[in-house]
What we know:
By secondary structure, this protein is mainly beta. The chain is 0% helix and 52% strand. It is built from no helices and 24 strands. The chain has strands spanning 3-5, 13-18, 24-28, 33-36, 41-45, 54-56, 62-64, 68-72, 78-84, 95-104, 110-118, 124-132, 139-145, 147-152, 158-163, 168-173, 179-184, 191-197, 203-208, 212-217, 220-225, 230-236, 243-249, 260-264. The strands form 6 sheets. A 4-stranded antiparallel sheet has the order 1-24-23-22, with no helix packed on it. Strand 2 and strand 3 (24-28) form a beta hairpin.
Amino acid sequence: MMWQRAGLRLGALEGPIPDGDGGLFFTDLTSGVLHWSGSALRTVLPDRPMVGGLCLTRTGDLLVSGSAVDRYSVDGVHVSTVLSLDDIRVDKPGTLPRFNDLAADAGGRLWVGVIRSDTSSSARVPGEVVLLSPREEAVVVLDDIYPNGVCFSPDGTLAYLADTFGRRVVVVSVESLRVVGEWSTSDAIGHPDGIVADRDGGVWVAQWRGKTIDRYVDGATALSLNPGAMPLSLAFDDADPHRLWVVTGPDEHGDGAGDLLVHRCEVAGVPPERAELP
Length: 278
């Protein structure tokens, strides 16, 4: 399998979102939000570390997670705060919450993971996945989860949620918001992080610490790729659905550097949707 590499030497990379023109927005957890045109790297937000997720809106703005979900122009100008931690209304004393990965479904609703850490030990504790609909309050879809990547089935009826420390993928009905299935990723060494779906019903999972990208069909491993680096997240390109973007980072020992990788897939992927906001 051939992997094209951008040759960047950055930190831990997350939140890849294709820009629609063959480029990619992504985050460096140690600094901020970046954009790769295919030949040049541009800084969009230089002073916003620990951004776990990005999503484009239907009007072309960029949603950025962290201590809040904020809306920026693609040139880095702040537009508004879309979602704050006060909007979640979940009381878990002794925990420090932050927004992590986020993705829009076919209806333009925004699915956002809330990660939590213990305030005394900094250990990760279960968080939530919340749903923000246009002109409606945020509702909790799933509790007791260590949320990371979010993606959707080709027909848009199912949401796949990566539960990193639970080492599982949870399947939720987009219509009823009920859990309709789950499968374990414990057969892999790693922990599920970024997640995308393809048009044949496969679900691709970046295995943090495991250093593989695994494709699951009906909950069983159908393919395992070794990108030669620590994969953290991934995205299929809307300009070319056979192009899979992978962002990487240092391993658990701090070895290696963040880079952008591109893999050519036989099956076409499901590109990310764009969020609809008031």
